[in-house]
TrEMBL record:
Residues 24-136 are annotated as: Disordered. It comes from Thiorhodococcus mannitoliphagus. Residues 76-94 have a biased composition (Low complexity). Belongs to the LptD family. This is LPS-assembly protein LptD. Component of the lipopolysaccharide transport and assembly complex. Interacts with LptE and LptA. The gene is lptD. It comes from the Bacteria. Pfam families: LptD (PF04453), LptD_2 (PF19838). One of its GO terms (biological process) is lipopolysaccharide transport. PANTHER family: LPS-ASSEMBLY PROTEIN, LPS-ASSEMBLY PROTEIN LPTD. Together with LptE, is involved in the assembly of lipopolysaccharide (LPS) at the surface of the outer membrane. Residues 30-42 have a biased composition (Basic and acidic residues).
Amino acid sequence: MPTMVDQKRSALASALLALIALSGPSLSEEQPRTAVEADRPSDFQPTTPADDRPALPLLTPSEPTPPGTDLQGLEPKPAAPAETAPASTPAVTPHPAPRRLGPRSEDKRLSQGLSWDYCGPKPGTTEMTPTAPFGADAQPPTDITADRVSYDQDADLISLLGDVEILQEGRRFESDRSSYRRSNGDIKASGNIYLELPGIRLVGDAASYNLETQKGSITKPGYRMSGNANLRGEAEQAWMLSEQQSRYRDIIYTTCPPGNTDWSIAARELELDQASGIGIARHARIRFADVPLLYTPYLRFPIDGRRRSGMLIPTFGSSEETGTDISLPYYWNIAPNMDATIIPRYMSTRGLMLGGQFRHLSSFQHLEIDGEILPHDQKAENEGVRGAYRIKQGGWLGSRWSSSVDYAAVSDDQYLQDFGNRLDVTSVRNLSQRADVRYRGDGWGLIGRLQQFQTVDASIPPEDRPYGQLPHIEFNVDPKTWNKLAELDFDAQYDYFDHNNAVHGSRVVALPSLRAPLRRSFGYLIPRARLYYTGYDLTGQEEGAPDQLSHLIPSVDVDGKLIFEREVNWLGTHALQTLEPRLYYVLTPYVDQADNPLFDTTALDFSFSSLFRPNRFTGYDRIGDENRLTLGLTSRTIANRSGDQLLRTSIGQVYYFAQPRVQLDGNTDSTESDISSSVAGELSARLHSDWTATASLQWNPNETEQPWEKQVLQLRYAPDANHLINLAYRYNLGNQESEEYEDTDLSFKLPLGSNVKLVGRWLYSMLNDETVEAFAGIEVGRCCWRLRLLGQQIKRSATDPASTSIMLQLELAGLGSFGNQIDKLLERGIYGYQPD
């Protein structure tokens, strides 16, 4: 069962991003994938961009419960005579909060014995674990030590002087002088105050605290939270309302480690509630690099990773299709297992669109519904109401039944072109609409499927659009072993292929097979026999062609491999080298299938792995006649100590004893007269501990003008997470002009010092002599913040001129990410890139 990404957002994120957008250069929307990548199939995503939308938090599979109330102003009720906090903040202009953290927050006692492995909330943490106060019948003992001790029996008051230390299970209190009232647990202290509680430490000048209620106050405190969140700061006054709640006056708060205060929140008042995971600041100022970025009279923000309702980070963009484009998403935490995101989207040239997402997670299914609607398109008034939606579901009932749904639709063919903002969305030609039901029996399985497509590319003729499968039923039996010698396998399918403008009808497929594998440590020999049965009942056949067809086609193949080994020295490493010759022979007689329609059949892409396939076509509308032998050779070099593969090379070629006659177009005259195929080769090598190389080649010895049909050469340098260089050359001759390309690709991530990194990519088309995509930028940051600045040039299509953009992203640990989602672009564009 898939999980959903956990990420928090706050009102601060919205305000800060708005400030950046107004004060800085215009930020472009997220760019599409390159033209080369556009040819790859991609699922439709509703046009609210998935990469631009903040990742939503994790849902908990449980029964729905009412959402918790928001944290209100906390009313401190410390035990007398502890000082109490004011009930509310006076409605007057606050005096200036301190600008920078002072020495109190750097007190060594706050961090002694504690690590700072992360900044802000601990990765993967969804809530704080509260520590309940001691009950009256479970009060632990209290140990008190000091240089001088006096006791007032009448007042039951202990006075302590010099190196005072009071210990109680999991709690420590230190001071120069202190008094302790035994009757109610009240402590008053002054001088070098140090208070340690589960999850928080404080130092200060004077303090009052109650050991029984865990309430008190500290004057001029410095504090440090640890455990599920690393953060620190100092204040003029602090009140401990409970072990999970505290309030501060004139405070500075940061998630940066000691010795580093690159960003901070300075506030007149701050309330932290670890139980609810919420912080509330009043009259707050956000500072970054000692530069004020934002003032707000009220700020509510998360201090852990729990889901909560609130505004998400808005997105800003501009394009010729939509004009100024602004989205203001709101996240609604309905229940622990249910949430929704409501996304108003304003486009200056088209109008106001309303989008949304609903998610539900239960013990038997997960459900996600995305949709958007534009009631009136100002730029295309004749289109009427426009919109799109997608439904994704996965369910299970017991251990045998399961279901899945993936259904996408748009209102018109131009919808994705008008509202999509990535090439992988705008280049989609067919939207899948599929629903599956599966049953898993004891040694067998059954699949029922309904699938059709909405074609959104008007240039595709109606007769060439994909078939619907209404229904597809598939039955398969797990391989059965007989007497440890033979294995019997059986698969069967029934499909009704639906189409309004082409031949349509039903097809039955049955595929029994029998093999007798002989496996040894030095290799294997696997002979196999199979029988293809296909039967058709068709409507709309051409005149003279039969409506009912059936074929029974036998096929045999033999697959054999030997493995030879020897010890070698590979660049100073003791290793094992193998030599693995492989023979594969397949024999399938010719059967005329020219009258068969092409429901789901295409030619296999030629590669090293395809040399060992029994049929050169996908699907079952064409069963290729075969009388061929494949010769393959693979060699591996494997390190003895680690087991890592240091080198792998493979080469193979097919030899034809008879020319194939079955063709996709029904023509039985083979267009090829060569007795052998192209040579396919692969190579993967670890040249050094930091360098790896891969290659994939296809060479046709029967051609003299252009013998090289495919070439992919890649070199990668990756000694650690901060150093990364990728070099690649890709060439494909293709079977037609639209499939031909020749590109070079360079991408990198390199450090300049400890806190600065350079990132970039240059994808260049040698065939068209132009840059397809190029970007370069800089990453600056530490544990608690990261700033990315990136410039990009990209071609959206072969005919349009390249567009340029400048993007900015600021991440503050514990608050969120503001600006363009540059980290997503870098993950897509730089192979192996991972955000710090």
